[in-house]
Amino acid sequence: MPFRLLVPLGLLCSLLPLHHGAPGPDGTAPDPAHYRERVKAMFYHAYDSYLENAFPYDELRPLTCDGHDTWGSFSLTLIDALDTLLILGNVSEFQRVVEVLQDNVDFDIDVNASVFETNIRVVGGLLSAHLLSKKAGVEVEAGWPCSGPLLRMAEEAARKLLPAFQTPTGMPYGTVNLLHGVNPGETPVTCTAGIGTFIVEFATLSSLTGDPVFEDVARVALMRLWESRSDIGLVGNHIDVLTGKWVAQDAGIGAGVDSYFEYLVKGAILLQDKKLMAMFLEYNKAIRNYTRFDDWYLWVQMYKGTVSMPVFQSLEAYWPGLQSLIGDIDNAMRTFLNYYTVWKQFGGLPEFYNIPQGYTVEKREGYPLRPELIESAMYLYRATGDPTLLELGRDAVESIEKISKVECGFATIKDLRDHKLDNRMESFFLAETVKYLYLLFDPNNFIHNNGSTFDAVITPYGECILGAGGYIFNTEAHPIDPAALHCCRRLKEEQWEVEDLMKEFYSLKRNRSRFQKTTMSSRPWEPPAGPGTFSSPENHDEEREKKPAKQKIPLLSCPSQPFTSKLALLGQVFLDSS
Predict the structure, then answer these.
(1) Please, which of 35, 156, 203, 324 could form a disulfide with 215 given CB 3.0 to 4.6 Å?
(2) Known EC number(s) (predicted)?
(3) Span 211-222, pLDDT tens digits
């Protein structure tokens, strides 16, 4: 039977019954239409406040009604909010913002930027908007989705991040200067999520542009983390990317680790990659064995499994949604209900919650309007139709409006105990929190398409199908259409084919050891037999010795080619289409 991964819930579960009229705990029904309009009003209150008071800065400061740069001076809130505009049905503003971004955003600047945040917010936001452009009525150029201004911007931003991956381990630095690369003296310590959260955006970029470098570096980083896990199958929180030694050895599913696990699952679904899914399932076993207690997940020492922090972090609330993607609905609902009790206790999720004491942790009492619990509710509601999930959505709308709304947007809640506010509105509030709330209450949104409608698009590489549903959300809630990865595939495959042909040509002139060195990088990634060691050229040579030797190509013969090649000269291959 051919391998098939679970498809995203927007496609898989769209036909499940939805219990819209179910009563809440106070006997009232959380009416989806009513709350959909409430969420839309929340979005425009925040969005308009950003445009009027903060643009072109990255983010709004809602208490002082001004703006500030936070992650690199990209007008970040505008990029992050772009696909939300379309999900809310505002095509005219989507079109206007596309023009504004092309005219105003410049990545050739002397700014130190977070590699992780720039990828998930900027590269992810631009890729999503690029793939949704035609649906939004933007006049796309010939060759779309394999070309386009937003795609070129995403590629430019991603190329600015590539120097960070030039380390002995292949794991990236956490910060890079967009003009000069990695600064001398930059700390080599990076969090696990900052290493393993690239495969969704970078594989999409490679598929659309035909340049494999992005997917390649993302896969190397994923594999290095996999090879660094402990003997009991856990990974720590921070690692030295130069030496591969763990600096912080706390293992859990929350801050500093979270999206690494998320991208193993979403990367597996997006790329139909069973190895990535197998890696996650192995991690999942270790997580259940060592960190789960009564459907809570604690922090443990990665080598011993002993509890180090009996806390729940708000960032961990993505986990039930991730469990739903692998079909583990019962466990997902039990954990979700635990987290929901914390929300009810405070009207939001504190950054840290001490589970045995049942209260917040000192200096971690805030709630910056994070989306994770709402995200899980959206996924689980698509899968189950359980009205409890709509009740969470209702409670979130009421809490955020009551506590956080100010004249110029929505402010971070500094302390959930007394509802003191902080002067910041993170861009993810518009990218994620509002988006997941709206999708929770909008069962007929195009994002939830079950494949009954689609668009056939003619590209230079043939016909492809787009807009059929099954969108994969990156960790900033930017939806990626998985079908788009097939639209430009021929270009990518031909590029790899050319590389393979050149390697075979040169292998005829070189000895076996030289042949092994030049082809080692093209070998498919195989999970190592055990944790704690990096793959090395010597390891690959030993593996190759065990395999039957390939049939040698006779001199002056040509391997078969699925495309027409006219001339090869000094490594340059000229095609009929060039």
Answers:
(1) 203
(2) 3.2.1.-
(3) 999 999 999 999
Residue corresponding to tokens 């939830």: 448
Residues of the binding site: 475
Stated pTM of the model: 0.83
Q: How many CB atoms lie within 10 A of CB 452?
A: 9
Question: Which residue carries 């009229």 as its tokens?
Answer: 21
Higher pLDDT, 293 or 4: 293
The pLDDT assigned to 528 comes to 43
The answer for residues whose C-beta is within 8 angstroms of residue 280's C-beta and 6 or more apart is: 261, 264, 265, 268, 326
User: What is the reported pLDDT for 44?
Assistant: 98
Q: Report the alpha-carbon distance of residue 273 to residue 407 in Å, rounded.
A: 47
Element (H, E) at 421: strand 420-422
**What count of other Cβ atoms lies within 10 Å of the Cβ of residue 328?**
15
Both tokens assigned to 322:
């991730």
Structure-token pair, residue 352 = 């840290």
**Which residues contact residue 505 at a Cβ distance below 8 angstroms, ignoring those fewer than 6 apart?**
568
- Torsion angles phi and psi, residue 175, rounded to 5: -135, 145
491-496 own/partner pairs: CB under 8 Å, 24+ apart: 491/146, 491/210, 491/461, 492/206, 492/207, 492/210, 492/212, 494/210, 494/563, 494/575, 495/210, 495/211, 495/212, 496/212
CB 227 within 8 A of CB 535: yes
> Which tokens belong to 179?
């003009």
Q: Is 302:246 a contact under the CB 8 Å cutoff?
A: yes
**Could you tell me the two tokens for 151?**
């795609």
Vertex 89: Cα angle to 201 and 200 (nearest 5): 10
Cα–Cα distance measured from residue 117 to residue 114, given in angstroms and rounded to the nearest whole number? 5
Could you list the residues known to form a binding site for Ca(2+), using ranges.
475
Catalytic site residues?
Answer: 117, 258, 351, 372
Nearest-angstrom CA–CA distance, 213 and 177: 20
Instruction: Pick the closest to residue 196 from 297, 273, 120 (CA basis).
Output: 120
Please state, in angstroms and rounded to a whole number, the distance separating the CA atoms of residues 572 and 135: 38
Query: Residue 361 pairs with which residues in a beta bridge?
Result: none
If we measure between CA atoms, which residue out of 253, 252, 276, 254 comes closest to residue 265? 276
218 CB burial (10 A radius; 0-12, 13-18, 19+):
buried
Distance CA 486, CA 488 (A): 6
pLDDT of 60-80, one tens digit each? 999 999 999 999 899 999 999
